[in-house]
Amino acid sequence: MENKSKELEIAIKAALEAGKIIEKYFETEILKEFKEDKSIVTLADRESESIIKKIILDEFPDHSILGEETGMTKNGGEYVWQIDPVDGTRNFANGIPLFAVSIALVCENEVIVGVVYNPATRSLFYAEKGKGAYLNDKKIFVSKDDKDHAIITASPSKLNIDRKLLLELYHNFPKIIRSDRILGCTAIELAYVARGGLEANIQLGLNTYDFAAGTLLVQEAGGKITTLEGKAWKFPENYFIASNGVFHNLLIEEVKKQKEKLKIN
User: Fold this and answer.
1) Among candidates 220, 41, 22, which has minimal Cα distance to 121?
2) SS3 label, residue 209
3) How confident is the model at residue 76, as a pLDDT?
4) How far is CA 263 from the centre of its chain?
5) What is the mean pLDDT of each run of 10 residues along the chain (265 residues)?
6) What residue ranges in 93-238 does DSSP mark as E strands?
7) CB 222: neighbour CB atoms within 10 A?
8) Of 19, 159, 196, 214, whose Cβ has the fewest other Cβ atoms within 10 Å?
9) Phi then psi dihedrals of residue 165, to 5 deg
10) CA angle 138, 192, 248 (to 5 degrees)
11) d(CA 199, CA 182)
């Protein structure tokens, strides 16, 4: 991308520096700790978030930051960075190379910069509002495949009702699409939709820092995002369908059907 903004340049720098830390710990006997919600955290998560915050605040001291490990650092103003220092920590901690640094900048509930970096594969996805989406400096686009060729993923929150909905969807997906996956890393799933490796991703109630960067990638790559009901989606809504747009309505109908089956409003 030509003429990257300073914000995007700093986001890329922070992601790459955090990636070096994550690489250092990958496939080592790193200690796994468990949070109250049973999710995993490691030293890599903490060190990654620390370096990201330092790089951002050195350049933008008046920006606020919401990080998975340290919560909200509120500095006033309209700009808020959304940081997941290691999205897919369980994959990372178990030596599975599907994880990523996810960094996004939000202004007045609009994602304007997004970076997703997987240091295991050296895959650097980035996007800026109105300037397209890129993978390792090459412009990317969503696929044109229809339901007969589609690969779809979904990510649920830890709520039992979201997990039940996920199970019902995966039970019925084979009736309407070719293939489904659970990758265990929301940022990567959305990035793959953006580059045409997946055709769709359904998000069920995750945290904003999990998906903020990925949603911008999908939109800037020509994809479509709506609420589960098919209405216009706007950040920070965390129940949505992101797809290449080709069979989006079919996914809306399938989600509606399974929600009615489970009596979910």
Assistant:
1) 22
2) helix
3) 82
4) 28
5) 95 98 89 69 90 98 96 92 96 94 97 98 98 98 96 95 95 94 96 98 97 98 98 98 98 97 92
6) 100-107, 111-118, 123-128, 133-135, 138-140, 151-156, 179-181, 200-204, 224-227
7) 17
8) 159
9) -65, -40
10) 115
11) 13
The rounded radius of gyration (Å) of the Cα atoms in the chain is 18
First-to-last C-alpha distance (Å) of the chain = 42
Q: What is the pLDDT of residue 241?
A: 98
- What dihedral do alpha carbons 208, 212, 218, 222 form, nearest 10°? 110
Specify the DSSP element, H or E, that contains 249.
helix 248-261
98-133 residues labelled b (16+ CB within 10 A) or e (exposed): bbbbbbbbbeeeebbbbbbbbbbeebbbbbbbebbb
Say which amino acid occupies 173: F
Asked whether the bond before 236 is cis by omega within 30 degrees of 0, the reply is yes
Helix axes 6-25, 43-59, angle to 10 degrees: 160
Q: pTM here?
A: 0.95
